[in-house]
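Holo model, 2-keto-D-gluconic acid. Inputs:
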Amino acid sequence: MAVRKPKVVVTRKLPDLVETRMRELFDTELNLSDEPMSQEALAGAMQRADVLAPTITDRIDRKVIDQAGERLKLIANFGAGVDHIDVAAATQRGLLVTNTPGVLTDDTADLTMGLIMAVARRVVEGAEAVKAGAFHGWSPTWMLGRRISGKRLGVVGMGRIGQALARRARAFGLSIHYHNRKPVSPRIAEELEATYWESLDQMLARMDVISVNCPHTPGTYHLLSARRLKLVRPHAIIVNTARGEIIDEAALAAMLAAGELAGAGLDVYEHEPAINPKLLKLPNVVLLPHMGSATMEARVDMGEKVIVNIRTWMDGHNPPDRVIPAML
Ligand code: 8YV
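Output:
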Protein backbone atom coordinates (compact mmCIF):
# COMPACT_ATOMS: atom_id res chain seq x y z
CA MET A 1 0.00 0.00 0.00
CA ALA A 2 1.32 3.41 -0.92
CA VAL A 3 2.37 5.79 1.87
CA ARG A 4 2.59 9.60 1.72
CA LYS A 5 6.31 10.25 2.24
CA PRO A 6 7.93 6.87 2.23
CA LYS A 7 11.16 6.13 4.04
CA VAL A 8 13.69 5.45 1.29
CA VAL A 9 17.11 4.04 2.16
CA VAL A 10 19.73 4.59 -0.54
CA THR A 11 22.61 2.15 -0.06
CA ARG A 12 25.39 4.03 -1.91
CA LYS A 13 26.34 7.61 -2.69
CA LEU A 14 24.50 8.85 -5.80
CA PRO A 15 25.10 12.06 -7.79
CA ASP A 16 24.16 15.18 -5.76
CA LEU A 17 21.36 16.02 -8.18
CA VAL A 18 19.69 12.66 -7.60
CA GLU A 19 20.21 12.68 -3.85
CA THR A 20 18.81 16.22 -3.51
CA ARG A 21 15.70 15.37 -5.50
CA MET A 22 15.18 12.21 -3.46
CA ARG A 23 15.46 14.24 -0.24
CA GLU A 24 12.84 16.66 -1.59
CA LEU A 25 10.39 13.94 -2.54
CA PHE A 26 10.86 11.25 0.09
CA ASP A 27 11.99 10.72 3.65
CA THR A 28 15.37 9.72 2.26
CA GLU A 29 18.30 8.25 4.15
CA LEU A 30 21.55 8.73 2.21
CA ASN A 31 24.90 6.97 2.48
CA LEU A 32 27.25 9.93 2.49
CA SER A 33 30.38 7.84 3.13
CA ASP A 34 29.60 5.59 0.11
CA GLU A 35 30.82 2.62 2.17
CA PRO A 36 29.09 -0.56 0.83
CA MET A 37 26.67 -2.01 3.38
CA SER A 38 27.44 -5.23 5.23
CA GLN A 39 24.71 -7.91 5.22
CA GLU A 40 23.80 -6.81 8.78
CA ALA A 41 23.54 -3.15 7.75
CA LEU A 42 21.48 -4.14 4.74
CA ALA A 43 19.11 -6.22 6.89
CA GLY A 44 18.78 -3.22 9.22
CA ALA A 45 18.00 -0.91 6.30
CA MET A 46 15.38 -3.35 5.06
CA GLN A 47 13.76 -3.33 8.49
CA ARG A 48 13.32 0.44 8.71
CA ALA A 49 12.61 1.32 5.05
CA ASP A 50 9.46 1.41 2.95
CA VAL A 51 11.67 1.46 -0.14
CA LEU A 52 15.23 0.23 -0.54
CA ALA A 53 17.27 1.78 -3.38
CA PRO A 54 20.21 -0.62 -3.69
CA THR A 55 22.98 -1.11 -6.22
CA ILE A 56 24.96 -4.04 -7.57
CA THR A 57 27.21 -3.99 -4.48
CA ASP A 58 24.32 -5.14 -2.26
CA ARG A 59 23.63 -8.87 -2.03
CA ILE A 60 19.87 -9.04 -1.54
CA ASP A 61 19.49 -12.75 -1.00
CA ARG A 62 16.66 -14.77 0.49
CA LYS A 63 18.20 -14.49 3.95
CA VAL A 64 18.05 -10.66 4.11
CA ILE A 65 14.68 -10.64 2.34
CA ASP A 66 13.30 -12.96 5.03
CA GLN A 67 14.48 -10.47 7.69
CA ALA A 68 12.84 -7.48 5.96
CA GLY A 69 10.45 -5.40 8.03
CA GLU A 70 6.70 -5.35 7.45
CA ARG A 71 6.86 -1.84 5.96
CA LEU A 72 9.28 -2.70 3.15
CA LYS A 73 7.31 -2.83 -0.09
CA LEU A 74 9.63 -1.84 -2.92
CA ILE A 75 13.21 -2.58 -3.95
CA ALA A 76 13.97 0.17 -6.49
CA ASN A 77 17.34 -0.94 -7.86
CA PHE A 78 19.77 1.69 -9.15
CA GLY A 79 21.01 -0.34 -12.14
CA ALA A 80 19.71 -2.49 -14.97
CA GLY A 81 21.03 -5.90 -13.92
CA VAL A 82 19.22 -7.51 -11.00
CA ASP A 83 21.29 -10.66 -10.54
CA HIS A 84 22.29 -9.45 -7.05
CA ILE A 85 18.63 -9.57 -5.99
CA ASP A 86 16.70 -12.78 -5.38
CA VAL A 87 13.68 -11.50 -7.29
CA ALA A 88 11.73 -14.73 -6.77
CA ALA A 89 12.19 -14.52 -2.98
CA ALA A 90 11.26 -10.82 -3.01
CA THR A 91 8.12 -11.49 -5.05
CA GLN A 92 7.11 -14.35 -2.74
CA ARG A 93 7.34 -11.89 0.15
CA GLY A 94 5.14 -9.41 -1.71
CA LEU A 95 7.96 -7.00 -2.55
CA LEU A 96 8.07 -5.21 -5.87
CA VAL A 97 11.43 -5.01 -7.63
CA THR A 98 12.23 -2.34 -10.23
CA ASN A 99 15.38 -1.55 -12.24
CA THR A 100 16.68 1.17 -14.60
CA PRO A 101 16.80 -0.23 -18.15
CA GLY A 102 17.36 1.80 -21.31
CA VAL A 103 19.23 4.78 -19.87
CA LEU A 104 22.63 3.07 -19.79
CA THR A 105 22.38 1.33 -23.16
CA ASP A 106 24.37 3.79 -25.28
CA ASP A 107 27.10 4.36 -22.73
CA THR A 108 27.63 0.63 -22.19
CA ALA A 109 27.65 0.00 -25.95
CA ASP A 110 30.20 2.82 -26.40
CA LEU A 111 32.50 1.32 -23.82
CA THR A 112 32.13 -2.15 -25.36
CA MET A 113 33.16 -0.74 -28.75
CA GLY A 114 36.03 1.02 -26.99
CA LEU A 115 37.19 -2.27 -25.49
CA ILE A 116 37.08 -3.97 -28.89
CA MET A 117 39.22 -1.19 -30.34
CA ALA A 118 41.53 -1.11 -27.33
CA VAL A 119 42.28 -4.83 -27.50
CA ALA A 120 42.51 -5.15 -31.28
CA ARG A 121 44.68 -2.02 -31.67
CA ARG A 122 46.67 -2.36 -28.43
CA VAL A 123 45.58 1.10 -27.29
CA VAL A 124 46.36 0.64 -23.60
CA GLU A 125 49.66 -1.12 -24.26
CA GLY A 126 50.70 1.74 -26.55
CA ALA A 127 49.66 4.43 -24.09
CA GLU A 128 51.52 2.69 -21.26
CA ALA A 129 54.64 2.36 -23.43
CA VAL A 130 54.64 6.11 -24.09
CA LYS A 131 54.26 6.94 -20.40
CA ALA A 132 57.03 4.47 -19.55
CA GLY A 133 59.38 6.30 -21.94
CA ALA A 134 59.51 3.36 -24.37
CA PHE A 135 58.55 5.36 -27.49
CA HIS A 136 61.78 5.97 -29.35
CA GLY A 137 60.27 6.92 -32.71
CA TRP A 138 58.07 5.33 -35.32
CA SER A 139 58.79 1.81 -36.47
CA PRO A 140 57.06 -0.14 -39.24
CA THR A 141 56.78 -3.27 -37.13
CA TRP A 142 56.06 -1.89 -33.66
CA MET A 143 52.67 -2.12 -31.88
CA LEU A 144 51.00 -3.97 -34.70
CA GLY A 145 47.44 -4.89 -33.87
CA ARG A 146 44.66 -6.32 -35.97
CA ARG A 147 42.23 -4.50 -38.27
CA ILE A 148 38.65 -4.26 -37.04
CA SER A 149 36.99 -3.51 -40.35
CA GLY A 150 35.86 -6.52 -42.35
CA LYS A 151 35.76 -8.82 -39.33
CA ARG A 152 32.86 -10.79 -37.87
CA LEU A 153 31.37 -9.76 -34.52
CA GLY A 154 29.39 -12.36 -32.58
CA VAL A 155 27.04 -10.75 -30.05
CA VAL A 156 25.95 -13.07 -27.25
CA GLY A 157 22.61 -11.59 -26.17
CA MET A 158 20.91 -9.25 -28.61
CA GLY A 159 18.90 -7.09 -26.23
CA ARG A 160 19.10 -3.31 -25.99
CA ILE A 161 22.86 -3.14 -25.40
CA GLY A 162 23.66 -5.90 -27.92
CA GLN A 163 21.72 -4.02 -30.60
CA ALA A 164 23.31 -0.69 -29.72
CA LEU A 165 26.73 -2.32 -29.97
CA ALA A 166 25.81 -3.91 -33.31
CA ARG A 167 24.87 -0.47 -34.72
CA ARG A 168 28.21 0.96 -33.67
CA ALA A 169 30.13 -2.06 -34.92
CA ARG A 170 28.46 -1.80 -38.34
CA ALA A 171 29.80 1.74 -38.64
CA PHE A 172 33.28 0.31 -37.98
CA GLY A 173 32.84 -2.16 -40.83
CA LEU A 174 32.18 -5.32 -38.80
CA SER A 175 29.53 -7.77 -39.90
CA ILE A 176 27.00 -8.73 -37.26
CA HIS A 177 26.23 -12.21 -36.01
CA TYR A 178 24.30 -12.97 -32.85
CA HIS A 179 23.04 -15.65 -30.55
CA ASN A 180 19.88 -14.99 -28.57
CA ARG A 181 16.99 -16.98 -27.14
CA LYS A 182 15.00 -15.87 -30.16
CA PRO A 183 15.76 -13.90 -33.33
CA VAL A 184 15.30 -10.13 -33.33
CA SER A 185 12.44 -8.67 -35.37
CA PRO A 186 12.86 -8.84 -39.16
CA ARG A 187 13.11 -5.03 -39.22
CA ILE A 188 16.08 -4.96 -36.84
CA ALA A 189 17.70 -8.00 -38.48
CA GLU A 190 17.48 -6.19 -41.81
CA GLU A 191 18.74 -2.88 -40.43
CA LEU A 192 21.77 -4.58 -38.89
CA GLU A 193 22.16 -7.16 -41.67
CA ALA A 194 22.51 -9.54 -38.76
CA THR A 195 22.93 -13.30 -38.97
CA TYR A 196 21.15 -15.30 -36.27
CA TRP A 197 22.77 -18.40 -34.78
CA GLU A 198 20.48 -20.66 -32.81
CA SER A 199 23.55 -22.63 -31.79
CA LEU A 200 26.02 -20.64 -29.68
CA ASP A 201 28.67 -23.31 -30.32
CA GLN A 202 28.35 -22.83 -34.06
CA MET A 203 28.63 -19.07 -33.82
CA LEU A 204 31.58 -19.01 -31.43
CA ALA A 205 33.64 -21.20 -33.73
CA ARG A 206 33.31 -18.71 -36.60
CA MET A 207 33.79 -15.25 -35.08
CA ASP A 208 36.74 -12.84 -34.96
CA VAL A 209 35.32 -10.77 -32.10
CA ILE A 210 32.89 -12.03 -29.45
CA SER A 211 30.97 -9.71 -27.14
CA VAL A 212 28.97 -10.81 -24.11
CA ASN A 213 25.84 -8.69 -23.74
CA CYS A 214 23.26 -10.92 -22.05
CA PRO A 215 22.04 -10.68 -18.45
CA HIS A 216 23.41 -13.01 -15.81
CA THR A 217 20.74 -15.54 -14.85
CA PRO A 218 20.95 -19.17 -13.71
CA GLY A 219 20.67 -20.03 -17.41
CA THR A 220 23.62 -17.87 -18.52
CA TYR A 221 26.04 -18.71 -15.68
CA HIS A 222 29.27 -19.89 -17.39
CA LEU A 223 27.54 -19.74 -20.77
CA LEU A 224 31.04 -19.30 -22.12
CA SER A 225 32.28 -22.42 -20.35
CA ALA A 226 35.74 -23.96 -20.70
CA ARG A 227 34.33 -26.28 -23.37
CA ARG A 228 32.79 -23.44 -25.37
CA LEU A 229 35.86 -21.22 -25.07
CA LYS A 230 37.84 -24.02 -26.73
CA LEU A 231 35.61 -23.62 -29.80
CA VAL A 232 36.73 -20.00 -30.27
CA ARG A 233 39.43 -19.51 -32.88
CA PRO A 234 42.87 -18.54 -31.53
CA HIS A 235 43.00 -15.21 -33.38
CA ALA A 236 39.69 -14.07 -31.85
CA ILE A 237 39.16 -11.57 -29.06
CA ILE A 238 36.46 -11.65 -26.38
CA VAL A 239 34.93 -8.65 -24.62
CA ASN A 240 32.56 -8.65 -21.66
CA THR A 241 30.69 -5.62 -20.34
CA ALA A 242 27.73 -7.64 -19.01
CA ARG A 243 28.52 -9.81 -15.98
CA GLY A 244 31.67 -11.74 -15.09
CA GLU A 245 29.77 -14.87 -14.13
CA ILE A 246 28.78 -15.47 -17.77
CA ILE A 247 32.36 -16.46 -18.67
CA ASP A 248 34.40 -19.13 -16.87
CA GLU A 249 37.07 -16.61 -15.87
CA ALA A 250 39.68 -19.18 -14.82
CA ALA A 251 39.36 -21.00 -18.15
CA LEU A 252 39.52 -17.71 -20.07
CA ALA A 253 42.64 -16.60 -18.18
CA ALA A 254 44.34 -19.94 -18.77
CA MET A 255 43.61 -19.81 -22.52
CA LEU A 256 44.80 -16.20 -22.83
CA ALA A 257 48.00 -17.05 -20.97
CA ALA A 258 48.57 -20.06 -23.22
CA GLY A 259 48.06 -17.97 -26.38
CA GLU A 260 44.93 -19.93 -27.29
CA LEU A 261 43.01 -16.64 -27.65
CA ALA A 262 44.35 -13.39 -29.08
CA GLY A 263 43.02 -11.07 -26.39
CA ALA A 264 40.23 -9.98 -24.11
CA GLY A 265 38.62 -6.77 -22.89
CA LEU A 266 36.85 -7.14 -19.57
CA ASP A 267 34.83 -4.62 -17.59
CA VAL A 268 33.25 -7.19 -15.25
CA TYR A 269 34.57 -10.16 -13.28
CA GLU A 270 33.31 -13.41 -11.90
CA HIS A 271 34.24 -12.61 -8.29
CA GLU A 272 34.11 -8.82 -8.51
CA PRO A 273 36.01 -6.83 -7.31
CA ALA A 274 38.56 -9.69 -7.18
CA ILE A 275 40.22 -10.40 -10.53
CA ASN A 276 41.95 -13.62 -11.52
CA PRO A 277 45.64 -12.75 -10.89
CA LYS A 278 46.63 -14.40 -14.18
CA LEU A 279 44.66 -11.76 -16.09
CA LEU A 280 46.51 -8.89 -14.41
CA LYS A 281 49.82 -10.00 -15.90
CA LEU A 282 48.74 -10.42 -19.53
CA PRO A 283 49.61 -7.74 -22.11
CA ASN A 284 46.82 -8.81 -24.47
CA VAL A 285 44.10 -8.10 -21.93
CA VAL A 286 42.45 -4.74 -21.19
CA LEU A 287 40.82 -4.65 -17.76
CA LEU A 288 38.39 -1.95 -16.65
CA PRO A 289 36.73 -1.41 -13.26
CA HIS A 290 33.03 -2.06 -14.12
CA MET A 291 32.53 1.34 -15.72
CA GLY A 292 30.25 0.49 -18.67
CA SER A 293 27.54 2.89 -17.53
CA ALA A 294 29.84 5.27 -15.67
CA THR A 295 28.89 8.59 -17.22
CA MET A 296 27.38 11.45 -15.24
CA GLU A 297 24.46 11.48 -17.69
CA ALA A 298 23.68 7.79 -17.20
CA ARG A 299 23.92 8.02 -13.43
CA VAL A 300 21.53 10.99 -13.33
CA ASP A 301 19.11 9.23 -15.69
CA MET A 302 19.32 6.06 -13.58
CA GLY A 303 18.48 8.12 -10.51
CA GLU A 304 15.55 9.70 -12.35
CA LYS A 305 14.26 6.21 -13.17
CA VAL A 306 14.56 5.14 -9.53
CA ILE A 307 12.55 8.24 -8.54
CA VAL A 308 9.87 7.62 -11.18
CA ASN A 309 9.52 4.01 -10.08
CA ILE A 310 9.11 5.06 -6.44
CA ARG A 311 6.67 7.87 -7.29
CA THR A 312 4.52 5.64 -9.48
CA TRP A 313 4.37 3.04 -6.74
CA MET A 314 3.47 5.77 -4.20
CA ASP A 315 0.60 6.81 -6.44
CA GLY A 316 -0.71 3.25 -6.37
CA HIS A 317 0.29 2.37 -9.93
CA ASN A 318 2.49 -0.35 -11.35
CA PRO A 319 6.04 1.08 -11.59
CA PRO A 320 7.20 1.28 -15.22
CA ASP A 321 10.36 -0.79 -14.72
CA ARG A 322 8.97 -3.63 -12.68
CA VAL A 323 11.06 -6.80 -12.86
CA ILE A 324 8.95 -9.92 -13.22
CA PRO A 325 10.68 -13.09 -11.96
CA ALA A 326 9.43 -15.24 -14.86
CA MET A 327 11.15 -12.90 -17.31
CA LEU A 328 14.58 -13.49 -15.80
C1 8YV B 1 25.52 -0.23 -12.93
C2 8YV B 1 25.37 -2.34 -14.33
O1 8YV B 1 26.31 0.87 -12.78
O2 8YV B 1 23.18 -1.46 -14.45
C3 8YV B 1 23.88 -2.43 -14.44
O3 8YV B 1 23.40 -3.57 -14.54
O4 8YV B 1 26.03 -3.27 -14.52
C4 8YV B 1 26.12 -1.11 -13.96
O5 8YV B 1 26.50 -0.49 -15.14
C5 8YV B 1 25.37 -0.94 -11.62
O6 8YV B 1 24.59 -2.07 -11.76
C6 8YV B 1 24.78 -0.06 -10.56
O7 8YV B 1 24.04 -0.81 -9.62
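The radius of gyration is 21 Å. The mean pLDDT is 97.
Archived with the compound record.
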